[in-house]
Amino acid sequence: MWIPTEHEKYGVVLASFRGTVQHGLSLEIGDTVQILEKCEGWYRGFVLKNPNAKGIFPLSYIHLKNANIKNKGQFETVIPTEDSVITEMTSTLRDWGTMWKQLYVKNEGDLFHRLWHVMNEILDLRRQVLVGHLTHDRMKDVKQHITARLDWGNEQLCLDLVPRKEFSMVDPDEISVTELYKLMEHRHRKKDTPLPASTHHLFVQMKSLMSSNLGEELEVYFSIYDSKENRPISERFFVRLNKNGLPKSPEKTERQCTLFVDLGSSDLRKDVYITVHIIRIGRMGAGEKKNVSNVQYRRPFGCAVISIADLLTGDSKDDHILKVYTCNTESEWYQIHENIIKKVNARYNLTGSNTGLAVSLQLLHGDIEQIRREYMVLFTRGVAITKKLGFSDIIMPGEMRNDLYVTLEKGEFEKGGKSVARNVEITVFLLDCDGQVLKNYVSAGSGEPAGDEFHSFVLYHNNSPRWAEQIKLPIPVDRFRGSHVRFEFRHCSTKEKGEKKLFGFSFVPLMQEDGRTLPDGTHELIVHKCEENANLQESARYLKLPFSKGNLPGNNQAVKTTKESFWITSFLCSSKLTQNGDMLDLLKWRAHPDRITDSLSKLKEIDGSEIVKFLQDTLDTLFGILDENSQRYGLKVFDSLVHIINLLQDSKFQHFKPVMDTYIESHFAGALSYRDLIKVLKWYVDRIIEAEHQEHIQQVLKATEYIFKYIIQSRRLFSLATGGQNEEEFRCCVHELFMSIRFFLSQESKVASPITQTQAVFLKTFPAVYCELLKIFNVREVANFVRETLGSLPVIAHADCPLEAVKLQCIAKTVESQLYTNPDSRCILLPVVLHHLQMHLQEQKDLVMCARILSSMFSLIRKDGTTEVSISEEVDLIVESLLGVLLRTILEITNRPQPAGTALRLQFQDVTGEFVACLLALLRQMTDKHYQQLLESFSNKDDLRDFLLQIFTVFRILIRPEMFPKDWTVMRLVTNNVIITTVLYLSDALRKNFLNDHFDYKVWDSYFYLSVIFINQPCLQLETFSPSKKKKVLEKYGDMRVMMGCEIFSMWQNLGEHKLNFIPAMIGPFLEVTLVPQPDLRNVMIPIFHDMMDWEQRRSGSFKQVEAKLIDKLDSLMSEGKGDETYRELFNSIIPLFGPYPSLLKKIERETWRESGISLIATVTRLMERLLDYRDCMKVGEVDGKKIGCTVSLLNFYKTELNKEEMYIRYIHKLYDLHLKAQNYTEAAYTLLLYDELLEWSDRPLREFLNYPMQTEWQRKEYLHLTIIQNFDRGKCWENGIILCRELADQYETYYDYRNLSKMRMMEASLYDKIMDQQRLEPEFFRVGFYGKKFPFFLRNKEFVCRGHDYERLEAFQQRMLNEFPHAIAMQHVNQPDETIFQAEAQYLQIYAVGPIPESQDVLQRDGVPDNIKSFYKVNHIWRFRYDRPFHKGTKDKENEFKSLWVERTTLTLVQSLPGISRWFEVEKRELIEMSPLENAIEVIENKNLQLRTLITQCQARQMQNINPLTMCLNGVIDAAVNGGLARYQEAFFVKDYIINHPEDGEKIGRLRELMFEQAHILEYGLAVHEKFVPQDMRPLHKKLVDQFHLMKSSLGIQDFPAYVRASPVHFTNGSPRICRNSVPNAISPDGARVIARRSPLSYPAVNRYSSSSLSSQASNEVSNITGQSESSDEVFNMQPSPSTSSLSSTHSASPNVTSSAPSSARVCFSGSPLLSDKHKHSRENACLSPRDRPCSAVYPNPQDPTQRMITHQIGENSLPRSDPNLSTPEKVVNPTPSSWSLDSGKEANTQFSETVGKLVSPPVPPRPQHQGSPARNMRPLSPVPTPRSPQKTSIQSFTPSPTECQSSGLVSNSPVLSGSYSSGISSLSRCSVSETSGTEAQPSEHMLTTSTSSGSDELTRRENKTPPPYSVYERTNSRRPVPLPHSLSVPVSSDPPALPPKPHQLRSGKLESEGRRASEQGPRPRPLPRKVSQL
Asked: Quick check: 1211 and 1194 in contact, CB under 8 A?
């Protein structure tokens, strides 16, 4: 049986448990579990990180831990009873663990490793704490270390700042908000701005001296030198170096490292230097021989200098190499460092080029104890301490020093009878009063131990040496009296003996007889002559002699006149000895009672450091004198006491205050002094008002604190001694004193009067007196003293009065004092404090201090059960006096502009934060009663209204993100908790007072606005939190968003008809709330929209306003990243949603207006789908197709469905920016053109919008034009740029702006140049299908055609798409997927290449147009694409596969043409047709013929670099060894069975026969050309080809060509088969057809397949690729490989159409062979061109044209008529019927251009003379009139004879009549032009003039125009418009030879009038292209 556990509540998992048993709960090792029940060795409970999953687990797997239980029962929470630091560590490490792994994923390696180390460190420290063996101090250090590491990690991971008190986390509910704010701010400040240290220390380590000329030992002296004052400011640090320049004692680090301690901030400046003096120990001269003398001398070597400022830049330990200099003259040595600093270069030079001193220097900051902690290793290893000369900036009590510093300055000596000057050395000894040398008290510097004596360095031959060497004598105080220093002078000989001969001495006593020490300063000592050391043995003998010339008696002239002198400088740094006689006189006052007054007066002149040295003695002296004679000395003693007290206020001596406190507590014995002190103090206070000079009185008042300390202590001593006598008298005295104080404080005076200043001085010190008074008086008495004193202050309104600020400081100290913490005194003090605060806050003055006071006040108010009543009263008082003014203050300071300075700005933020914390603390303390009283206190509704508006506004300010730093989540949650509690109270007041008749829109609006931004603030979005953080927040506060949402709903329901006031204004804000992903909140909020729609419907009959606002807001919110899929379902879902409310759609369906409502929901949902996709796409980093496609989808939606022009334009620019980023310049130009088209050339002013300034419409359109031209230029789409250039030029011309017109014409010209000169790559096109539900909405189950990038082939494109959709699966077939794929929860991509079907056929078919112009029209403005798939129908003949090889041709039509505003567009329509095997064969041979013809032409025109392509092509056709070549076609289609079974194919069989003969004829001519150009080494191959050609002819049954072929010799213009200038290519002409290499949709672009049959080979394709022959076909396709086992899957190319008599109007595009092979692979150079690079037939035009229009050829003057002259013209022009077949009947030049295209699509090519077309499908056979023509070259157009004039003869004699015979093939190769209407008869020009144009015009009216408008998004939903016949196709009015071609720009508006006339004659006038995209 399961029993609830009592104590076993919390545990940790010891081993992982899989939970395989029934109801088992899986556990991971280390999880913490909460236990609910237990039963027979099992527990039931849950893991704390997932409380929803409950289950059972074994008892043995759990280690139980002690825990406290809150809210026992169903909702109990368990808190482990362990150290809070341990708990925090555990939870924090868990959170870090997850984030740490993410760092690895995000590749943030540095932080990953650092965090790993810190986590390990914290785990180690955690173990130490858990073991519990640490001492209290060590535990404190460990916890401090842990919390520092936790804070560091939280900061690095951008987690929340944790408020802590003594290392433990603080519960915000346990402390006041102001205290919480202070803790947060303290931690934040600590993190941000460490306080600058006032004390600094310099670490020096001597490394080595590098020099080439060493060899002697060295002494190195470091000191810190102040060049401003020209004196050292520190002792010297002394290091000995060996002969190698390294420290002599490397094992003793204290001998080579030092710390120069106690440097003040003032010492860290540029003119303070580290000086290094180096002394060598050796011979007198550096170059002397070694055997001259063994005596060692100290001699100058070198000096180095470095400025301390150089060390300020970094705290790291830096190694420095210092240059070492030596002086030019030795006598200058004493000032060498000054010369180096001043750069007096003449006096020093380098000791050597490679001499350098290696030292390590580092500045450390903080007091010495802090340095010991932080740099422990320095002190454990050993470091010498080098002190400052004198005391540091701050003197610490207890600091013991007694150091005498003596500097050997200079000497003046006589020659002593020698011819040269002496080498003088000084030896220094310290001797005691008995003449004994004091051992180890002479120190040359720190670093080396002190010795018994010191030897100066020797200057060579110098009788006036200057040393400036400093020594330290650390003499004990007790040895000081009677001691003296002796200086012995010796001459050092440089002779062999090297002796040092004594010649004199000097001495100086250290203390005078009166007890004063040797005064600081320079002393001139007498040099006493002495040549025997023995004379110095007895010091008593010479001590009687005078020692200094300064204090000689006047009669001792003999000694004064002596020339020899010696100067020293002494400086004493002693905490016990004094050089001051006045100090000694005061301390010995009893010896000289008559000097007491004098001594007391002189006390003020004594240096402070002397007084603090003897502080206790001085105080004892003063109170001793006071007790002696208080009447006489009382005032003097009081003044002296004041002087000493104020001396301790100085920062240098402030640390002596504790010394005085200790003195008062322990040593002070003046039990009677209080009377005198009170009396004198009252006397001074009473004199304040009359006194002229207030300075002295102010000094007295400054000392009030300590005076009161003495008074109180004196009274306590008296009470103890007397048992409390004279108590009343004392109280009276104190009361009188306070009356005097109150009187002087109440005086009002001018702003800067001395009395005001005196009042300010008193108020500063007054709060310090409270504690002293409390020692004698009770709390209430002291509180009354304070209240009356503060209450007596004058009410001053002067803004600049210094008293105001001081008054507040006094109140602040009062509130912070011990007195205020007591509730009894607080109730007395609170009113006066509030009164002053209120006054200041109303004036908005001294806000920093006011905030400080308020913070302190609220920190004391806690919800404490014992004093609930008193606290409630206090809150009452505060609310009444401060709530209103506090709100106003916050509003005021947040609306003020922030000050510029950083410090001021920080202060400003602090003040705001503190006031906010105070307000929150106050509101948190308020209860129902307080709110009730507050609301009742408003006398009228206006006041209440103002209050509510004010508090709502303040709450909105508090919610702002910038109110607190971003990691202050704890503070924000507390703030929100207070706000929601207050709002719940105030909403009742809103309902009661401002509804119905008293409705106030402003208050309600403010309320709703506050609620909305409350719900939306980031710190409440729990979904973004980690699970542990979310759990904590929910446990503590719940989901505050839902609470506020319910409140909004409740308030909305109360509004009634007033709801109309908030429609549509509140739609946006409420929508924002519903976008929060919280289901409960959404269910509460969605019905409000239904309500809004309902009320709006009632009011206006529609809800257009609601719709407009909803859509606008949705866009802005979704682009910010809000909303999700569930939200859309909430709006739209039919199924009931959980929660109390049905979905919005359900609600709407019950309404009368449901249709429009459902329509709105549908629109919003569709918009949301697009917006969600847009948002998700935009989250990705790089610009890709998804982003662009999504933006296009959204842009079109805004334009077509919503008609929101402004949103439309915004998204145009977003799309434009995306294109620019992706370098899609052409698409960018098309995109911007959408906006350009919305504008007119008008002067209408436009407002500032996006990045456009305010300007006229004309200016903006001009700017857009220029930008678009620039982008077209960058995208190499120059033809489009030209059109815009012309439009702009027209505008400039209209305004006579010739300057810009000129520029525009030049720009236009440059674009023409670029077209001709620069290479353009033709892109590939790919069809992409996106299948499956996982794709974004705008792609889902749709197919697109995409324009590839430059050089991008299929495999690269496929890889790019898979990178963009990494989860997609690539489909390996081209078949349309089934429904299962459509509905799959996955992503499928189907990609294959497709060929474009160009629209601009007239340019492509026109002869003489350069290829680089044609290439533009092949791949631009493409609507349609196609690809082919071969398959076998019926039984497959294994012997000849071509019998059953059909081709399935798919044509895709897009919604917009490519290129456009996107690189891809959706497929709108898909058409599928099948081509029969015969049609397939015709197309293959046509294309191969075209290819051959092209290569022959190029070869003849010498356009080819070499003849190889032609060679390979000929070889591929002639030497087709696989499957028999053309023979297979003969077998398949020319057999009797086929002809009988397919009677309808008679014409096609004839056509195939013609093509075969034509191919043979071309091959024969090709071999002739090949023979002419073939190189010698290729002759054998040529011979082989000729032989094989004869075999091929015989296999075809051709013995010789028919008569009509022989009658028409093959002649090419200019020796090539290129057709004449003005002819239009027919079926045999080189430009008449195009061969393209087809490719499997799934194969890679580089791998094409070729047949090696007689019709095709690898060479054939390579040739077709290399030629770059222009395409005259309007369609290109790719074909799927045949499934046949034989290689039938050749590369196909096809003409777009066949005649209507054919079963299918399609063609197959083969590479020339009916049989295919994979064995050849072509090289990149020859065959890597796209399908569009290969020529294609134009025989069959657009397959969508049901009928076809033939174009007649104008007859030139010299053309020979070849038809029967008796026939009339109308008889020759016969309407087409599907019954007969003509060679060229299926061919048309697809030259129908719309009017727009003529204007805009591209620069038109020069028009040709127009020819009337006559269909030739039903032509009867005419008798041939074979008139031969001479091949003449003429500018006049020649006319090709009609092939119908020759009777056909060939392979099948009984075939149907061939209206197009073989002669057409031969004549096409002749020099004369080929007629474009080879199916019509040639007529004289006079007949041509009468030809009807009716058939052409009829055709025009029937045919749809597929040409896109130039740049705009062409709406395919509009019906196609009939378009006039372009100028180039119109019928000429005369038969004169054509004039020169007109200029391209003449095709524009002026010339189009004639077109319009012609068009109107031919058919209905077309509707002009609209100006704006929005009108399409």
From this structure: yes
- Which secondary-structure segment (H or E) carries 995? none
Read off the DSSP letter of residue 1966: P
Q: Output the CA–CA distances (angstroms, integers) from residue 124 to 85, 120, 127, 1897, in the order listed.
A: 14, 6, 5, 95
What residues contact 1798, with CB distance under 8 A and at least 6 apart?
1804, 1926, 1927, 1947, 1952, 1955
> How many Å apart are CA 1247 and CA 813, to the nearest integer?
59
How many angstroms from the chain centroid is the CA of residue 1283?
A: 42
Cα–Cα nearest to 1396, from 1433, 1421, 1363: 1421
How deeply is 226 buried, as exposed, middle or buried, from its count of CB atoms within 10 A (0-12, 13-18, 19+)? middle
Nearest to 1424 by CA among 1467, 1367, 1485: 1467
Beta partners for residue 272, in sequence order? 226
529-541: pLDDT as tens digits: 888 877 788 887 8
CA nearest to 1519, candidates 1581, 1573, 1596, 1443: 1581
| 362 vs 315: CA distance, rounded Å | 6
Q: Report the amino acid identity of residue 1614.
A: N
pLDDT at 1851 > cutoff 70: no
Cα distances (Å, whole numbers) of residue 781 to 734, 735, 784, 823: 12, 11, 5, 14
Angstrom CA distances, 1142 to 135, 379, 1050, 1129, stand at 65, 76, 17, 12
DSSP, residue by residue, 1672-1691: --S----BPPPSSSSS----
Classify 792 as helix, strand or coil. Answer: coil
Token pair of 1702 as six digits: 């054919």
To which residue do tokens 């269910």 refer? 1083
H or E stretch covering 730? helix 727-745
Structure tokens at 836: 């002053």
**Do 11 and 48 touch, CB atoms closer than 8 A?**
no
Q: How far apart are CA 597 and CA 577, in angstroms?
A: 24
Q: Are 1492 and 1669 in contact (CB under 8 A)?
A: no
Asked if residues 1344 and 1327 have their Cβ atoms less than 8 Å apart, the reply is yes
Q: How far apart are CA 155 and CA 1131, in angstroms?
A: 41
Cα separation, 1605 vs 1597, whole angstroms: 16
Q: Rounded CA gap, 155 and 1026, in Å?
A: 16
- Top pLDDT among 1005 and 140 is at 1005
Distance of CA 3 to the CA centre of its chain: 57
What pLDDT sits at residue 185?
A: 80
Residues 6+ away with beta carbon under 8 Å from 1267: 1232
Burial 354-375 (b: 16+ CB within 10 A, else e): ebbbbbebbbbbbebeebeeeb
Task: List pLDDT tens digits, range 1884-1926.
Answer: 333 433 333 333 444 433 334 433 344 333 333 333 333 333 3
Count Cβ atoms below 10 Å from residue 398 Cβ, excluding itself: 7
Share of the chain above pLDDT 70, in %: 73
Residue 44 near residue 36 (C-beta atoms within 8 A): yes
SS3 category, 311: helix
| Residues whose CB falls within 8 Å of the CB of residue 1499, separated by 6 or more in sequence, listed in order | 1507, 1510, 1569, 1570, 1573, 1616
What contacts 906, CB < 8 A, 6 or more positions away? none
- In the numeric block, which tokens belong to residue 1420? 């631009």
Tokens of 746: 């109440």
The label of the residue with tokens 């009185």 reads 697
pLDDT digits (tens, 9 = 90+) for 1594-1613: 877 775 554 434 433 344 43
- Of 1604, 1496, 1613, the C-alpha closest to 1559 is 1496
Residue 1514 to residue 1564: CA distance in whole angstroms: 10
